[in-house]
């Protein structure tokens, strides 16, 4: 598996100003993704693979791909909402032991039918944080669209919004969430083309937020080949990206000084409120 070194603000593959103001004293929030190829494994095999990949990782917010427990286009397993806590218990235990928050999406049966639901997995188990709104392709016939374009949720003390895959194609929800104080966009995804990388870079720059795009790679049972190239996009246009064809765990430190500077930029740009004092995360 590829472990990219923790990048610094101002490094990566984009253009833009250097690191910005010096970081204020205090611990950094580590945010990133685990890119992998879940399509050929069962749900429990994927859970074991995630636990193994995160062995030794502590104090981080990690985004997983869309439908991270199996194939995307032809999911072999779907999950009742009331069974997620038991299913995901091994990841809950890892989150509690290592102070992790994991965010990914699954096909979930709830009171509204089948939805593409993002959950944040923390020490208290999985918590629903978003249902995909902009359903794509075969999803339109198989799933019910979410009703809320955005929410601002606390993930390990960081105000975030979750946008699943093509949700980020609509600029409105990210802008609205940023105006309400969101500092990061977390985006479980499953795509074969470069479009979402372009859109995530734009969302990061135009809203002065960190945008985390976590894609899968590999080939689904129906022959669909996925792009990989997951990335953490920063407000200055730079990024920390994964390769196209390998497991990759990428974590980026968000230092308090930079979070504050980006918050000030959001206030100037879109009138976002100042950040609240950082509290222990709930998600």
UniProtKB/TrEMBL annotation:
Gene3D superfamilies assigned: Carbon-nitrogen hydrolase
Cleavable signal peptide: none
InterPro entries, per database record: Aliph_Amidase/BUP (IPR050345), C-N_Hydrolase (IPR003010), C-N_Hydrolase_sf (IPR036526)
Keyword Hydrolase: yes
Region described as Disordered: 1-24
PROSITE patterns hit by this protein: CN_HYDROLASE
Gene Ontology molecular-function annotations: hydrolase activity
Occurrences of domain CN hydrolase (ranges): 29-256
Pfam families in the cross-refs: CN_hydrolase (PF00795)
Keywords associated with the record: Hydrolase
Origin: domain of life: Bacteria
Name of the featured protein: Carbon-nitrogen hydrolase family protein
Species in which this protein is naturally found: Nocardiopsis suaedae
